């Protein structure tokens, strides 16, 4: 704000100075100043350079817009891919839920331990899938963060460039202010001399030369008015171009607003992800409680199995004692009956060998069931380890999410700061350009007041126009006059000067012929006077001839000197034309460089297209891998189901055999 106030004060000071100078110019124009000639100067290419700079900036803006649109298209494609993946995941989750329901219906007939084990395996699978989804979402958020960081870096680069341009413009402004101060001091000194030495023209109606000069001045005024009208039309065209540029800048500001809305939408997505994480945490807590309950039930089942083992051992000991006690009492018939009963229980032959073999088989089956229980315990421990690992990974994911949120917040603040800096720099540039245009228009008006063509003045540089005005006013004070001419009129003037040179050469030739005739006449007169005896007449005639020849010689020398001056002036104008050609060559080189930049941008676009194709291929590969993993998990679930069914059958057989043994005893 302080800088803006200072600039406004400077603008007011400049406006006051311009009003004062306009009043001085009106006073000078009210005075009659005669015989003013225009001073020739080199053309200025500042306006063309500024137009080229504006064109370059427009191209840069167009390139930036194209990049922003490409990034928007990429984000839209990524969002569509995310939606497609989310739909696939929902479908897979629904399929998994259906499978789990089917498994629950099939396993409802089994015991509580088997149900709880199956529930644990299902919960672990769902948690693994959820962890994979969270990891994918984290990777996508990291990619978005990287893209936003790249955008902030680009904006920083642009800001640095604009700061450098601002510093350059400030330096140029200070130099222009110093030059204006020196110019104003010179103008004041010159105007003081003019006010002290007032000269008025006294024009008579009989003086044809002065009347012709007035007519030529009127024609010059009419031509200057026509040129000023053309200059006004050019200024109107420039104003229209500036309005179009302002509209484009407004469009870019709207695009930035859309980007901010997209950032807000990403924030909402992050919040949704946090809510999902909290929901997952609640699920984990419920699963942990289920696992605790299952562990308790497992411990109870193990205690029950140990009690059954103790009972078996007690029954065996009792049987052995009873056998040793009743060995002598019972006869072989009883032993045979016992064998027959055992054989009937064990469903084998009543021989000792077959009974032993059946008992061995029974014990081997019992040990196998124990091994299965130990394996199931190992799997439970693995599942618990996986749960711990998933909890640790979730804590890491939460930390990463917090970091990403902080980085997003910092990046948004940086973007807002950069946008404010850009807007401030644009405003300062516009104010500086308006100041420069006002000063330049003031100088053009001053040039018009001093009777210099406005088109020629507008085509000059700032420094050159100051020098031209100082020399012009110096010539006004000293009485030497010259006319300025622009580059377009120089060609016509060169042709006219060539015609003048030819005409003067013809006049010289005619004068030489006249001199020859005069010489012949003089010779004839000398021949005539030779006959005369009076020496005085001869001397008088010789004096007259000598005086005439001297006058003709002086006239011819003056014409030759004037022609030499015109030739030197024409050479200077040709040098100006050569400078203009050099500038044209420079512009062509700049155009070639711009075409190279366009080709490089096309190459970058093609490389980005290839990268996008590679990313799509990678996404397809990831989807295939996800489908393979899902199939593998389904196969493992089926294998576990088969193992559980086998264990259930073996346990049922074992329980039946125990019941039969108990009933037998």
UniProtKB/TrEMBL annotation:
<feature type="coiled-coil region">
    <location>
        <begin position="232"/>
        <end position="318"/>
    </location>
</feature>
<feature type="coiled-coil region">
    <location>
        <begin position="546"/>
        <end position="657"/>
    </location>
</feature>
<feature type="coiled-coil region">
    <location>
        <begin position="387"/>
        <end position="421"/>
    </location>
</feature>
<dbReference type="InterPro" id="IPR039139">
    <property type="entry name" value="CCDC170-like"/>
</dbReference>
<feature type="coiled-coil region">
    <location>
        <begin position="487"/>
        <end position="514"/>
    </location>
</feature>
<protein>
    <submittedName>
        <fullName>Coiled-coil domain-containing protein isoform 1</fullName>
    </submittedName>
</protein>
<feature type="coiled-coil region">
    <location>
        <begin position="89"/>
        <end position="169"/>
    </location>
</feature>
<keyword id="KW-0175">Coiled coil</keyword>
């Amino acid at each position: 704000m302080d800088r803006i106030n200072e600039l406004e004060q400077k603008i007011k000071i400049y406006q006051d100075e311009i009003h004062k100078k306009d009043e001085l110019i009106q006073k000078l124009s009210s005075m009659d100043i005669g015989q003013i000639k225009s001073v020739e100067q080199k053309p200025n290419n500042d306006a063309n350079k500024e137009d080229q700079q504006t064109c370059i900036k427009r191209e840069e803006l167009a390139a930036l817009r194209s990049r922003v649109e490409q990034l928007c298209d990429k984000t839209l494609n990524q969002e569509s891919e995310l939606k497609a993946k989310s739909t696939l995941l929902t479908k897979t989750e629904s399929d998994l839920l259906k499978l789990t329901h089917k498994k629950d219906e099939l396993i409802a007939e089994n015991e509580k331990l088997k149900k709880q084990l199956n529930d644990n395996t299902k919960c672990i699978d769902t948690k693994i899938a959820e962890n994979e989804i969270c990891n994918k979402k984290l990777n996508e958020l990291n990619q978005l963060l990287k893209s936003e960081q790249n955008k902030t870096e680009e904006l920083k680069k642009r800001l640095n460039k604009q700061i450098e341009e601002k510093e350059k413009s400030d330096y140029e402004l200070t130099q222009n202010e110093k030059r204006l101060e020196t110019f104003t001091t010179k103008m004041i000194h010159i105007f003081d001399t003019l006010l002290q030495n007032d000269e008025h023209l006294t024009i008579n109606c009989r003086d044809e030369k002065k009347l012709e000069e007035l007519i030529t001045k009127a024609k010059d005024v009419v031509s200057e008015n026509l040129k000023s009208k053309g200059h006004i039309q050019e200024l109107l065209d420039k104003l229209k171009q500036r309005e179009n540029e302002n509209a484009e800048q407004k469009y870019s500001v709207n695009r930035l607003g859309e980007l901010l809305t997209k950032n807000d939408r990403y924030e909402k997505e992050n919040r949704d992800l946090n809510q999902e994480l909290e929901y997952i945490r609640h699920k984990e807590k419920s699963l942990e409680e289920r696992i605790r309950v299952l562990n308790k039930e497992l411990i109870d089942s193990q205690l029950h199995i140990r009690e059954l083992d103790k009972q078996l051992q007690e029954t065996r000991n009792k049987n052995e004692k009873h056998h040793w006690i009743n060995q002598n009492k019972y006869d072989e018939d009883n032993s045979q009956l016992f064998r027959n009963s055992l054989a009937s229980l064990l469903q084998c032959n009543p021989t000792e060998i077959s009974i032993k073999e059946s008992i061995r088989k029974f014990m081997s089956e019992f040990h196998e069931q124990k091994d299965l229980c130990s394996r199931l315990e190992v799997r439970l421990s693995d599942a618990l380890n996986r749960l711990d690992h998933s909890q640790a990974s979730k804590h890491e994911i939460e930390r990463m999410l917090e970091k990403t949120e902080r980085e997003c917040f910092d990046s948004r603040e940086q973007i807002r700061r950069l946008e404010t800096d850009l807007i401030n720099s644009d405003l300062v540039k516009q104010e500086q350009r308006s100041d420069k245009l006002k000063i330049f228009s003031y100088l053009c008006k001053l040039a018009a007041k001093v009777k210099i063509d406005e088109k020629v003045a507008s085509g000059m540089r700032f420094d050159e126009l100051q020098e031209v005005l100082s020399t012009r006013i110096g010539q006004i004070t000293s009485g030497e006059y010259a006319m300025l001419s622009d580059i377009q009129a120089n060609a016509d003037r060169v042709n006219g000067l060539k015609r003048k040179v030819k005409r003067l050469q013809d006049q010289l030739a005619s004068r030489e012929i006249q001199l020859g005739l005069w010489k012949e006449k003089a010779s004839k007169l000398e021949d005539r006077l030779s006959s005369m005896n009076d020496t005085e007449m001869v001397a008088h005639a010789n004096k007259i001839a000598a005086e005439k020849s001297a006058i003709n010689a002086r006239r011819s020398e003056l014409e030759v000197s004037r022609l030499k001056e015109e030739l030197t002036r024409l050479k200077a104008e040709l040098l100006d034309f050569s400078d203009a050609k050099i500038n044209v060559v420079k512009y062509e080189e700049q155009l070639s460089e711009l075409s190279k930049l366009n080709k490089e941008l096309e190459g970058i676009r093609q490389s980005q297209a290839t990268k996008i194709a590679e990313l799509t291929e990678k996404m397809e590969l990831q989807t295939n891998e996800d489908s393979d993993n899902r199939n593998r998990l389904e196969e493992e679930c089926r294998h576990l189901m088969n193992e559980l069914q086998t264990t259930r059958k073996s346990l049922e057989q074992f329980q039946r055999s125990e019941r039969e043994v108990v009933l037998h005893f």
